[in-house]
Amino acid sequence: MFSNLYEDINEMYDDTAGAAKTVDDMPENKIRALGRLIGIGRDEYGHRAITLYIRPFGRGGRENYIKFAFAYDVYLPEDVSVGSYIEVEGHAVGYSFVGMEGRRGHAQYCVVDKIKKAVSVMEQLCGIESFSYERPYVDFYFKGTIRSRYKNDGSSWSILTVQTGNVGIDKRPVYVRVQFSDRMRVADNKSGENEKVCIYGTVTSTRKEVRNVTHDYTNFIVSDMVTYGKE
User: Which domains, ranges and CATH numbers included, belong to the chain?
Assistant: First the structure.
């Protein structure tokens, strides 16, 4: 990877980077992204937010529109505007709530902690800015405890509620729902309630029209998961 934003993650998997890595080196709650900034406004929960466009990779890929709410003290850099390619570092927030009609729900979203303008591939190679950037991505890294695991009737998708840490100003625990399909290799991991796990995956979005308003909801799709203990 060219990006300095990825140096600490690269070191996690680099055998030459020093001592062998342990569970303690795994980020507890981290999201990293590279994409084109296409909107500045509000997210589905009313927070001041930006929208990243993650173009599909390969034939049949799906477009994703990922919203990042701003942390309290984060603002756009002066050299960033709509249309810019940017790198983002942030974390997830997730919690349950009771609606006005007494129905329970779950909210989760991405929060941006750091923003910087992305550097084009050619600028990294020869110092001259151009139009080509690394492939867009939104990846997450969670370490925490599984609080529930279930499938909806007739579904092939497992949904895990994982309690992890909140790295923002609000230090309350985060309960984030992650998911994977029976067709994915990670489904071989049968970890359940109260087991401790490290998870890596990709953030995607589901776009829905509600009362003629477009909403983009966040999904955390697990790519890999390992178990390291139990409460």
Answer: 20-230 (2.40.50.140)
CA distance 138 to 220: 10
Q: Tokens 């909801």 map to which residue?
A: 217
Residues in the chain: 231
CA angle centred on 162, ends 156 and 164, rounded to 5°: 155
**Residue 192 carries which side chain, given as an amino acid letter?**
G
What stretch of H or E contains 10?
helix 7-12
**53 strand-pairing partners:** 36, 65
The 10s digit of each residue's pLDDT in 187-202 is 999 999 999 999 999 9
pTM over 0.70, yes/no: yes
- What is the reported pLDDT for 13? 46
User: Can you tell me the distance from the alpha carbon of 204 to that of 112, in angstroms, rounded to the nearest whole number?
Assistant: 16
Please state whether beta strands 104-117 and 157-164 pair in parallel, antiparallel, or not at all (unpaired). unpaired
CA 109, 115, 120, 126: dihedral to nearest 10 degrees? -140
- Residue 179 burial (10 A CB sphere; 0-12, 13-18, 19+): middle
CA distance 192 to 161: 10
User: What single-letter amino acid sits at 38?
Assistant: I
Amino acid at 31: I
**CB 153 within 8 Å of CB 142:** no
